[in-house]
Amino acid sequence: MYRKLFLVIPFLVLPLLRFTAAAQTLSRKDSLYQRLDKLPPNIEKVNTYLLLGEALVPDSLQKAEKVMKAALALSIQLGYHQGVADFTLYYMYLTDLRGEYMKGLYLLQQAEKIYYQIKDTNGIINVHNFMGNEYQQVSNFKAAADQYLAALEIADSRGDSLQSNAIITNLASVFIQLGDYHKGLEYAQKAYQFAAHRKGKRRQAAAYSILGVSQAKLKRYEEAAANYRRVIQLGRELGDSTLVLDGTINLASLLSEQGEHEGSIALFQQAMAITKAYPAPDYLINIHLGYGNELFKSGKYHLAETYIDKAISLSKAYLAGDELRKSYLVASDLKAATGRPAQALALRKQYEKLHDSLMGNTTRSSVQQLESRYATARQEKNLAEKKLQVANMHLELHRKNRWILFGIAGFILLMIPAIIYWLKLQHRHRLQLQQLQTMEAERTVQVLEAMMQGEERERTRLAKDLHDGVGGLLSAVKLHFSALRHERPYLKEDAGFLHAMSMLDDAVVEVRKTAHNLMPEILSRVGLSEALGFYCRNVSHSRRLQITYESTGQVKRYNASFELSVYRIVQELINNIIKHSRATAALVQLMQEEHTLSITVEDNGIGFQHQPELHQGMGLRNLYSRIKALNGNLDIDASAGRGTTAYIAFNIIPMQLAK
Predict the structure, then answer these.
(1) Model's pTM, two decimal places?
(2) What is the pLDDT of residues 376-389, one digit of tens each?
(3) Distance between CA atoms of 85 and 15, rounded to whole angstroms?
(4) CA distances (Å), 453 to each of 446, 456, 605, in order?
(5) Could you give the 3-state DSSP secondary structure of residue 298?
(6) Rounded distance, CA 240 to CA 278, Å?
């Protein structure tokens, strides 16, 4: 319920959307109208149109849309590309108020292309941050985090702490949604420290809100409640209804979690009254969901179902995936409480399916409990029907014995087509399940390939920069020093100068090694086996780590993407040895046996027992996923005192051999 209540838009091009009397006074609108009448068709008129459109939101949405589209038309007429992109950043407020998040996302993607083309850094930061907000609105948390991090990287490179703080607040919300509450609290505290230092009330309100949410998730209820009340107070001081709504809904949810249902219901009713003047769909969804949940807990099932149904309807209409997931869960509990186990089971399955797609690591225990309850009810019903049938049969037996035989024969004849029909349904279900599994596997492979392509493009860029940039510069320095040695003969005997030249030679060699490791051109020339051998020899250092490479069997050439994937997997395992194992020796073995390509990577390091955080690390999970997508298996043995051994086996039958 928290995601839509604390998204922050940085003060870059536009101010926050709000109901602030001072920001949208009649005199300001009149002044902008008068300026428009006096201006010729130029860039200043475009910007004035956009400012007027902003001033008309949210009181006059139709007028605001008309004015903003006039700015777009004039920008196109003038060939003013930045005006076209800026129009999107203003117009997205209208799409969000209407719940048209995918439309807003599409417009932002077009604006992104323009900002990159005209190299407007400020606009690039804005558009990445806004795209992150839109992705969060539709519960695509991975994409949202990617956009926020892209914006944060650029903002940090410019030293713009104001922009960075707003993005950090949004990142905190993503971590909270994904269940990493400690990381969310860490980002929230950074946002709070910045807001306290700058003493801006609106920034302070946003920081208090996200800080309260992270504290609530960590069961620090008193601190969370105090921060929510601060948000409400600041909203009233600023005349900003959105801040009052944020604090009120969050505080109501906190009271609900503590079992104070009467206080929670009263706060949800206050929030509902505010939305009569501000009918934003995201707030309405959360209010209906929270209020319906409280009515359910209070035993008012019929009224609760009305509000939960509204929450489900609005969530579907506005693609609010996280709210839809939670609404399904409450609706399932409602159906179960009112004696409708079949409907409860259907809703719980919808909840689990949506939960898996949004959060991952799904547990099926709740569904199994509902299925058990539903199966029990169905068995009791069947048992009652069978008892009735037996009674009827006994009654008929007392009348005429022959009707028993007719009844049994008729029953058997009825059951045969039913069983056949049931078997057909089961077969169809199995086929559909296999198709879904196949599609999921194909989608996983596509995602991994896209990720790898992105990684390879970045590696290639870095390798080129190292080789052509840093390597070229070091070579130039070496050439200059060599010239100095000839011009000044006494340097030939200078120990310090000779030592510097030696260090410069080592630096040139290391840069070239790093560039070649990042962009393994040798892989396409000589194949996987020779490329891995070259890499192991290149990485091996006599004073730190000695890597022995062995190849057994005739290793064939494969599809280029498969060879590159295997190369990167081995590279990742060796990097883990260098970073974590404290090993002095390692062995890499590559073996080709009929339809199996196996790889063994082992070291004499400390193993995983001394580093428990590596067992569930993201890097290890990514390795398992990538290997599985390539039709392979990974086994890791990390026995104490015996180092670590990783064994990988690929089934190469479905792999297309390189021609």
Answers:
(1) 0.43
(2) 544 654 565 676 67
(3) 17
(4) 10, 5, 32
(5) coil
(6) 11
